[in-house]
Each structure stands twice: as structure tokens, then as C-alpha cells.
Amino acid sequence: MAHFISWTVEALKKYPSRPLFKEYVDSNDSPEWISVSYETFLDDLERSAAYWVQNLSELEVKQNDVVGLWITGVKYSDLAHIYGLARAGYIPEVLGASLTIPIIRDLFAKTGGKTLLFEPTFANLVTDFELPSLAIPELGALPAVTSPLPPLPDVAPTDPGLIFHTSGTTSGIPKPIPETHRWIKCQAQVLWPKTWQCYPDGRPLILNNIGSFANIGSATSITYLSWSGHCMVKTSKPDFELDEFLAMLPQGLNALFLYAPWFSKLLNIARVNPTVLAALQRMGQINYTGAALNPEDEIWATEQGIPVTALYATTETAITMVTPLAEKGILPAMRLIEGLDYKFIPTKGLDHTDLDRDSEQRVQGGQLFDLFLPAEADNCPHHSIRNRPDGHITGDLFEEVQPGLYCFRGRNDDWIRTGKHFAFCDTKSIEDHVLTSCADLVRNCVVVGHYKPAVVLFVEPVNPSGDDGVLKTAVLERISSFNARLMIHERVTTPVQIVSVPSGSLPRTKEKGNIRRKAVEDEHSDVLKEIYANIEV
């Protein structure tokens, strides 16, 4: 199979003068952007490739070796270096700014990383890194390409082309997610075109990025933008402000890709701001993801003629479901993207009352399903991370509300979404660590915080008559080193995030006696509301 960068490069050549990217420029007056053409990006990519071929060859790094790229994720140049490394024949392992050297060591132990390329501002953090490390140069400092780049290496369809990571950690380590060459091609050439259903006349989309270039959604943008001839407008942050949204309109913004919480805020503004409402109505399509909207938002957006579609995607599988734009009034229902071999399989042993509160309120009493991707599916994840011998299930639950229409109904495992941007958090690894490190203090515990700004730890103490303040301080001290390895949104770092309750009082399942996370949140909703009102994210 052709290396994914080979057809990406050819696609970039099709639209040399079109804008591929609009780089956000920080300005004191108003937001501004600098346009980058397809031709310019291709030149930047190739100059980056030539630079890394020369410098990594001297370190005896070979094609198809894994090379860590530790970036801020906020600069256009980050994209040029990701794709430059790929064009040089290496496998970029993209590392975000929130990671630390100890975590990168652990990741390299799993992925076989040979060297670390780092953002220059991280230089003081890599002084004791055992493997070779090089600072990432500024694009403007790279010389022109004076000799042909080396041929791309031979690859199999299921070989990794890029490596990303989960937004949460398992026992303090993010899970590496290798994206295979066939996966990347499927995302760019099948999933992306079928996701965006607007503008059948072929005009290019001009849409915002969704998150950091160290994360898969935005980092893989070049593959699907180049294939489709589209353009991305870089925002200053994922939850950009209203003035920035309005300033993007003269840049040609005609589609939006948003996380549900920010889209909900934008809809609230549109209710009282006719300019914002008109701008949303003029969009070709607005895709939201990451969570369900409030039912009131879904109804109001539909009534106002705003072209809204829900989207379901994961780091492991890319986009798999989207709302048909032509079918009005069906939000948040979605259909499987056509042409791929997926199927829904009934979920066993899960009661509706075990779902999170929002999902339980929405569920209509029907059978719940897992989404299964067989190993042969082009966007089935790399074999190293599949959770079934014959394929992969996503871990999310769905209900069929009309024939072929499915709604998201929460998760079937111990992962929740939490923090400012509702990233994943593995609650079980935190609970296990507390129970292990605080065995003489805590009899049982549970972590809650699904779609909340932070996690909260409920504990049943061994000594019910002890001082709560002393208990909380002791627990925080014992888990401090573990906390340091977690993403910020997963950490329990203040006494306010610990709630002590009487032994045996946390609600449990009847058969196995497991603590019911969702029921804890419901039962202690007033306590949690007060905690979240006084916590800084």
C-alpha cells in the first residue's frame, strides 16, 4: 500500500493557490489571520522533511522508526513538522505540552521511540533525557530543498503511520494510539467527505480547527483538508470568544466543528443576538461532538433553521456516525457512515439505571448496543489496541430510536469525561491507587465528575470517627506522586475534591456490590453542586 503521505502530497499539488490554513495572529486590537496556501504548506513540509532526514540520519534513526515530536500544539509550524517527519519516512509520535519527561519515557518504552524532537521552550525539561533529543527549528530558518527527498519506505496497510494518545491516562500513562495507513486513508477519503454534507456544488469548506494540533482531530487535518480542497481557520483556543467567532466570518468561515458545550454557549448567545443567529443560519453545516446538547438546544436550533448535525468519533476509530443533514428534527440521532463494515451488538448485563444521569433521562427503554468494528474494517484500530480478538468495540452505548437512527447513551466502562474540555478520565485506575496507597485509611471509594469541571473522590473511611480534615490531608499526601503523572483534569489535588461519607453508605449494585458511580452523583448532587461552584478549573 502507498504510504499515506504519498497521496497527501499529491493532493496538496492539486490546489496550489487555494488557502489551506489561516494562522491566528495575536493582536491587541482584533483577531487577525495570515493565509497559508497549499503550495506554501507543501514547501514547508518538504523543507522540514529534508532537515530531519539530514539530522536524524546522523543519529542513525532509520525510516519507519518512531520519532517523538513534543509540541505546544498551537502553531502552524507544528503541522508542518508532523507531516515533514512523515515525508522523511519516520513515524511521528505526537506529544502534547501537558506531558512530562517521565511519561514520555514510559510512552517510548511502549512505542519504541528512538529520539525526541522538542519545542525549544521545553529545552530545560529534557536535560536528563537518556535518548538523543533535538530542538525543533523555526520554519523560516530551514533552507530550501536542494536535492531529492528519499523515497518513502514500503508499508503494509496495517502499519502505523502516525501515533497519538488518549486524552486521559491509565494508571498515569496515556494510551498510545497508532493510526494505520489504511485508517488515515479511510478518514481522509471516505469518512470526512461523507461527514460534511453541505455544498454539493463543490465549493470548499472554510472551518475552524477543533483543539490542539497535538490531538488527532486537528493534527490529521492536513490529510482530509488536502484531499477535499478545504481550508482551516486556526482559533486562539477551542472555546474561542464571541468576538473571534464574528471576526472569522469575513475570513470566509462557512462551517463549524465544535464541542457540544461551546456550541451550547453559542446558541444561548444567538437567542438574544440576531447577528449571531443569522451567522449560524448561514453556515453550510455545524457539526458538534463530544457530548449531547440539551434537548432545548436541539429543538431551538432546528426551529431556527440552523444546519446542525451531531457527530460521533473516537481517537481509535475516527468518525463513524453523523446526523443526516437533510433529515430535520432528529437530533441527536445519527446514522452509520455508509460503505463501512460496522454493526451494533446488544450490550449485556447493563441496566439503564447504571447510566449517567443525562443518558438515563434520554433513554427510551430500548435495547442498548455497542458499536463493533470488525478487524477487516478500514478504520478498525491497530491490532495493539483492539479490545476484541476479531475487532474492536468503542466502549460507548447507543439506542436505536428509529430504524437505522441511533443516539449516544453514555459509556459502558469506568471512563468518564471531565475537566474544562471534557477529556477522558480512567476512574478505576485512580480508585485502585487510592485503595492501595491508603488501605489503612480508606475502606472504599469512587471517583465521579462525568461532564463536570473536575473529578471528586468519595471515600468511606476505615475509621468513621476520625477527623475529616486529617483524613483528606493524608490521602492527598499519599496520592501526590501518582497525581503528578495524571493529566490536569484527572487530578485530585485539593481537600474540596474529597468527600467523606459513612462506611457502606455509597449506593451499590445488588449482585456484585460494586459502587454505582451514577447513583453517587445523583444522591450527592447538592454537595457536588456546591463543590463545582467553588472550584477553579
UniProtKB/TrEMBL annotation:
Biological process terms in GO annotation: fatty acid metabolic process
Domain AMP-dependent synthetase/ligase intervals: 12-324
Pfam families: AMP-binding, AMP-binding_C_3
SUPFAM superfamilies given in the database record: Acetyl-CoA synthetase-like (SSF56801)
Signal sequence annotation: none
Annotated GO MF terms: medium-chain fatty acid-CoA ligase activity
Family: Belongs to the ATP-dependent AMP-binding enzyme family.
Name of the molecule in the record: Acetyl-CoA synthetase-like protein
